Amino acid sequence: MSIIIKTKEEIEILRKGGRRLAEVLYKVKEKVKPGISTWELDKYAFGLIKEMGDEPAFLNYKPEGADFPYPASICISVNDEVVHGIPDKGKILKEGDIVSLDLGLKHKNLFTDMAVTVGVGKISASSEKLLRVTEQALMAGIEAAQGGYKVGDISHAIEGFVRPYRYGIVDILSGHGVGKYIHEDPYIPNFGKAGTGPKLVPGMVIAIEPMINNGTKNVVLDKDGYTFRTADGKRSAHFEHTILITDGEPEILTRF
Ligand code: MG
User: Fold this and answer.
1) Ligand 1 center to residue 85 CA distance, Å?
2) Using the 8-state DSSP alphabet, how is residue 165 labeled?
């Protein structure tokens, strides 16, 4: 697949979809508290999206190599779960947990993608720091996503920001183009060399999503076939925005 440049009309739809996605995720975030199940959060998101007349992008999405389609609207990953955690009635959030909420939205046939990690009640100082650094790493990547720069500049900016903290940067999962499909070219790794890779051209729409571990970068796939966990059981955070490449500063689409 080659990189798909979006038209003016498509960008307008992606802008609207991104705004709606950010609003839904904000509302779900507000629901996160001790005692709620990840299943309830998923149902809530599904209802909000349907109410707007849109579709949850991940529900029934079957990634290459998966045995069965993804069974929920949101990926909810708790503590040592990195990404793609499956909501479950028996999974009840506890004070001190950290929870990554990753949601894709299909609005008028075009996709946007966003993730945040939030604390449940009061969290430890080390978890606070992991969340802060991961969100700042995302912003560093976005700052580097200027028209005329290259994908490697984004990767390098994220890696350069995270390295001093000695966290593990997950390297087998990456950001991606998005819009017509939920996953498009190019891949956007969270580490790499500046000045390398495909050129960032105005009209490109990409999802940047650092996944940062408070320990080893290594992850293992759970027996459920979807959930990635840290190999050492330490916590992981994940933040993601869908952005539009312009002539200068990128535009964050998943914001309201
Ligand atoms: Mg994504």
Assistant:
1) 14
2) G
| pTM of the entire predicted model | 0.97
Q: What is the pLDDT of residues 70-90, one digit of tens each?
A: 999 999 999 999 999 999 999
CATH number belonging to the domain at 8-252, selected among 2.102.10.10, 3.90.230.10, 3.30.750.24, 3.30.70.100: 3.90.230.10
The helix/strand/coil state of 129 is: helix
Contact between 15 and 203 (Cβ < 8 Å):
no
With CA atoms as reference, report the closest residue to 74 among 105, 107, 112: 105
Give dist(CA 37, CA 57) in Å, integer.
Answer: 21
Q: Ligand 1 centroid vs 95 CA: distance in angstroms? A: 27
In terms of Cβ atoms closer than 10 Å to its own Cβ (0-12, 13-18, 19+), residue 43 is middle
